Predict the structure.
Amino acid sequence: MSTRPAKRSAARQPAPHAHHKWCAIAAGFAAIFCFALLIPLLLQAASRPTITAVITAGGPGVDFARDVVRLPDGTMYVAGSFRGLLDLDGTEVTGAEEFPNAFLAKYAPDQTLLWVRTIMSDGTTSGIGVAAYDVRADAAGNPYLAGAFESTVDFGEDTTLTSAGGTDLFVAKYDANGNLLWARGGGSSLNDTFGSLLVEPSGRAVMAAACHRGTAGATFEGVTIHDDPANSGRDWCAIAYEPDGSLAYAKHLGGITNRDDGLQEGMALVAADGAFYLAGILNGPQGTAGSMDGTPLVIPENGGGNSWAVSKWDADFGLEWIQVFGSPGLGAPYALLPMDGGLYLTGRFQESIALGGAGTFEVVGTADSLLARLNPQDGSVDWANAYADVWARSLTTDGSFLYLSGGFISPGTFGMHVLPGTAPHNGFAAKIRTDGEVVWAMQMAGSTGTVTPTSPLYTAWACAHGSGLWCVGAFDGTGTFSEETRESTDASVDLFIARIEERTTPTSSNMRPQAQPVANILFFTSAFPPDEWTQAVAEGEAAPHPTYATYYRVWSPTHDRLENVRIEDPACARVVYLMGDENKDGAVSKGERWVLACAEPSRFVGGTPLLYAYSGPFFISQTAQPE
């Protein structure tokens, strides 16, 4: 029942929980020894995430929030797109109905809307209109907004930008009161794609993008780059603006010759220790050549589609190293995060992705996501994990843990955690240790309406940490936010802003092992095949909570027969049998795996419960005993 085919990465995998490890080691020893080991665990408190605040907004069109940044004073900037009418907490703004318009909103620490600003499309574009992808803030709290646009767009305050022919790029700076300070745009005569925005401590805004050559290169404030007629494709580029809006530099970085490198939003730019780290795609079959900052490039083995590239650059954008991970399918890296001496990378891939010496991951779902830790010195992979049917969009941190967010196609698999979902597409957030172990994963929002996206629109596009984890995204129809549901406006697509907080739940004080552990217990690591799931429900089982589910599998590697097994999970009062018991004897036989699930619909189920298996009362379900 593994989620990963045999051709899985040989990278170092996350270590199991300490209590699992020690209980396994203690098997065969005296009961008192194991009990001594378990005493500290019995006194632990388990953290459980729940959504404690939610804001939804929208109108009759497609509206969604794409990015969020939270400031030290508790204020928050949210950026996104809308069509026609957008109602934000009673403040209505209007724009073109046919194509997207962009907005930037500021919220007070108590989630009160302070102001909203818009960038209006003129309604004559071929589809993208204007899209605000990233929002960042400088040390003074001034927000910077960046994205892409077509035709002519209006920032208000008598400021407009007009593209050079296709999709161009923009960066705009506002003050903390929402006054537009400046807006700059540029690009080629064909489609340039936005990648990522970074604001340096000095207030300089650095944008990574993929610039097309077009007919005569891409131009930014009078500076033209990528104008070599022998390379007609779309290459990586970097454009920077000083705090006053003047151009600091525009640089052509490189790519695969005559190929369209770069995908809208499919780049990530971060800075650490005086260096830039940039990830994006390189397009082309295996063996296709190009260069990056003069360094020769070749699409490696397993290439053929959107191969991932991760690179390190000095402060003047001189290349220090680049690693290319071949992939024959679609997808892109979406986020980078320098933390804890490592460089964390996430994104989405199809078919497979080859990580050099760390092995190759084959896709399990429709499209899977990768989370990897890289060595910042050379880009080598320390470890990597893949999540089935998951579209990872963003990474953030509280300084100790990673927080991954995005969307998933039901069900989504996050290591040992499975989210069944409430709709075909759902948003998620997950807390992950720096060794890759998933602490918890939870669903939010979702799509139960009639709008069918061509990509997972119903997703948590981004999260920011500060007095909880703040996530933004979109939902359609009925959106689920822990125990609360919201309905979208006129059955259309609405945006959401949600705060996730972790609540501490003490474990049961009367939970005592009665004998030495004789079985291994792990979270179940796969979604059930449809026929098995349907059969389990048809036989009278209560399906797990629609928002959260914890699955367990139990087996004994040493005992021929376990007639009395008890599983205790302080977060779940009802554990039900789902499948197993191949011998039909009502006992766990040596090597036989039983699969169980928490089926208590009234309480939160998820996170990392403490699990015990020992001789004692049989505890599976009075109504779900196997025959």
